């Protein structure tokens, strides 16, 4: 058991599970069934195993069950990305060059396009290759990358084709139209969905494997599944898809049964629904879990579809003109971050109760739909607190204004538009203009600091310094940056490989929560969040920071086992000194 009371596996047992037990998609259901069988057998044979032995089997099955359920959510978005990245690399001939044994140097990689030699964008190609390194497709040799030695990789690069031009990117919007009774597909859209449905691979039957690297079919399934699930979410259908719910094509679309069959075909191949007879499917346990928990993480990755749709252009000419539209992302982010905000708001309440700290200004930056404020408003009302919401993008503020009009955000909440979190002046000026003292104001930021683009360690320190000098109490969540070593060792136990990829692609800067040893593979990680904030003068309040689960499901004595995400809690030095130094 871990100190937090979670069951752990032995390291070697996890590695055997990770590498040799196929557990993605429909294979996951087989593993869940095997766990149930094992648990029943252990209970039956308690006389032979002893009470502790039987309990150990039960706990081990519990860890495996969690790992399978995690992979059902984390693998599809990684595979969705991989399908796009490898598809474009094939188009540019990189797959064939890797297969031929060539070393690809991202700093000097030339391809022929329309008879002309073009130098690929070094930064963008390096980001792609780092992702492929994290997923076991290539190996690093000094500054260059070569094909990984496993036969699955060769099969993948030999057989994977560029994405056909007839496939819509993003397909989720077209699926959403199919599932929405108020909307009608154009004939081209209807044909495109049928083509997608027909490209679903058969369910995997081969159980043997000795590596967790995905098969070609698994890559294709991730690519197909993510948009179907997000289409269902956009049409507000995922909530009803609980275990045992029966589905007929007409339930998904009354007008277009062929399109609905295409969706069911993909869901069946992915192992989320089970076919009952020719016209009926039923949501199974894996699917129920996927529909409930998948849309948040899937949506966060899929928001970056402009980078996928223009992946070829970006490699050829850099990413200068591509930008993510946030209107689509704020819902996914709210889904994914609700629990984290609850932990941060709990910590703020505990801090206030423990220290007597009182505040009358609550700011949410990088606001999305204002989930952190909604929770604070629910707890504290608006009689004693003035609320402010800031964001760089109008789409997010517009979404928050709608929430305010619907009564979910306080009436007194004021919005600061075009506020870059990396340029604190705009928010601080707006607060002062509103007659508010920034000293002792509380600012909560959910996954927003990494949005400040292209920051160095030094410039990040300067940003924190402006907030600290203004006296702002800072609570922020950030997903913990993981090294490529960690990503390979944990395989499908996080979706961070993809998360890191899309953030790097768009120039956002993930950091570890606290300093980490220099990794063996890939570039060193950036300076930690805690290091940047403390160098800026902030005092870290460890007792009020909270963490989500760790990435390794086994004990690692003396070695880091980072949490997926951390809620940081920082107090300006001057305030800390007035509150008393026994607090850290
Ligand atoms: C990952 S979402 C998080 C939204 C919200 N905090 C949540 O967790 O639901 C990131 C938010 O940051 C906003 N954003 C992007 N770049 C920003 C920047 N440089 N400064 C402030 N906000 C930014 C986006 O518009 C979006 O609302």
Provide an overview of this structure:
The chain is of the alpha/beta class and 584 residues long. It folds into 2 domains: 74-322, no CATH class; 327-579, Rossmann fold, CATH 3.40.50.150. It is 50% helix and 11% strand. The chain is built from 24 helices and 15 strands. The strands form 4 sheets. Strands 8, 9, 10, 11, 12, 13, 14 and 15 form an 8-stranded mixed β-sheet that branches. It has a 3-stranded antiparallel β-sheet with strand order 5-7-6. Strand 8, helix 17 and strand 9 form a beta-alpha-beta unit. Helix 3 (46-91) packs parallel to helix 22 and helix 9 crosses helix 13. The radius of gyration is 25 Å and the shape is globular. The two termini are 28 Å apart. The model has no long low-confidence stretch (mean pLDDT 93). S-adenosylmethionine (SAM) is lined by residues 326, 329-330, 333-334, 337, 365-368, 371, 391-393, 396, 420-422, 446-448, 451-452.
């Amino acid at each position: 058991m871990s100190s937090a009371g979670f069951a752990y596996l032995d390291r070697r047992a996890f590695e055997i599970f990770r590498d040799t037990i196929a557990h993605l998609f429909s294979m996951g259901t087989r593993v869940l069934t095997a766990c149930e069988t094992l648990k029943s057998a252990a209970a039956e044979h308690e006389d032979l195993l002893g009470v502790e032995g039987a309990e150990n089997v039960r706990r081990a099955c519990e860890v495996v069950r969690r790992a399978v359920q995690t992979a059902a959510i984390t693998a599809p978005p990684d595979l969705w990305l991989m399908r796009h990245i490898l598809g474009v690399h094939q188009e540019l001939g990189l797959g064939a060059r890797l297969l031929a044994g060539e070393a690809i140097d991202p700093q000097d990689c030339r391809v022929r396009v329309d008879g002309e030699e073009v130098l690929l964008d070094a930064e963008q190609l390096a980001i792609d290759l780092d992702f492929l390194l994290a997923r076991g497709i290539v190996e690093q040799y000094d500054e260059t990358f070569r094909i990984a030695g496993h036969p699955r990789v060769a099969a993948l690069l030999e057989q994977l084709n560029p994405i056909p031009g007839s496939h819509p990117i993003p397909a989720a919007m077209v699926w959403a139209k199919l599932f929405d009774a108020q909307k009608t597909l154009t004939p081209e859209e209807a044909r495109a969905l049928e083509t997608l449905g027909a490209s679903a691979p058969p369910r995997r039957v081969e159980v043997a494997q000795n590596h967790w690297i995905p098969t070609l079919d698994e890559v294709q399934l991730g690519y197909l599944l993510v948009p179907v699930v997000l289409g269902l979410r956009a049409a507000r259908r995922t909530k009803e898809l609980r275990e045992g719910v029966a589905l007929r094509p007409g339930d998904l679309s009354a007008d277009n049964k062929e399109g609905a069959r295409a969706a069911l075909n993909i869901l069946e191949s992915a192992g989320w629904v089970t076919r009952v007879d020719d016209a009926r499917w039923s949501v199974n346990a894996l699917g129920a879990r996927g529909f409930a928990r998948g849309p948040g993480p899937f949506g966060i990755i899929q928001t970056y579809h402009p980078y996928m749709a223009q992946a070829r252009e970006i490699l050829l000419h850099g990413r200068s003109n591509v930008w993510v539209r946030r209107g689509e992302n704020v819902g996914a982010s709210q889904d994914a971050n609700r629990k984290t905000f609850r932990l941060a708001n709990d910590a703020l309440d505990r801090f206030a109760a423990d220290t007597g700290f009182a505040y009358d200004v609550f700011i949410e930056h990088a606001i999305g739909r204002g989930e952190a404020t909604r929770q604070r408003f629910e707890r504290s009302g608006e009689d004693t607190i003035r609320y402010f919401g800031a964001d760089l993008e109008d789409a997010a503020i517009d979404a928050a204004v709608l929430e305010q009009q619907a009564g979910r955000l306080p009436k007194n909440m004021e919005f600061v538009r075009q506020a870059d979190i990396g340029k604190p002046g705009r928010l601080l000026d707006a607060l002062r203009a509103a007659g508010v003292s920034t000293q002792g104001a509380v600012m909560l930021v959910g996954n927003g600091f990494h949005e400040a683009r292209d920051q160095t360690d030094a410039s990040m320190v300067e940003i924190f310094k402006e907030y600290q000098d203004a006296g702002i109490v800072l609570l922020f969540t950030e997903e913990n940056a993981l090294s490529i070593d960690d990503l390979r060792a944990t395989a499908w136990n996080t979706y961070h490989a993809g998360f890191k990829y899309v953030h790097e692609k768009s120039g956002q800067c993930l950091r570890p929560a606290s300093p980490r040893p220099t990794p063996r593979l890939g570039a060193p990680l950036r300076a930690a969040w805690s290091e940047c904030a403390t160098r800026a003068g902030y005092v870290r309040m460890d007792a009020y920071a909270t963490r989500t689960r760790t990435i390794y499901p086994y004990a690692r004595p003396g070695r880091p086992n980072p949490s997926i995400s951390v809620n940081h809690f920082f107090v300006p030095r001057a305030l800390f000194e007035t509150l008393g130094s026994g607090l850290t």
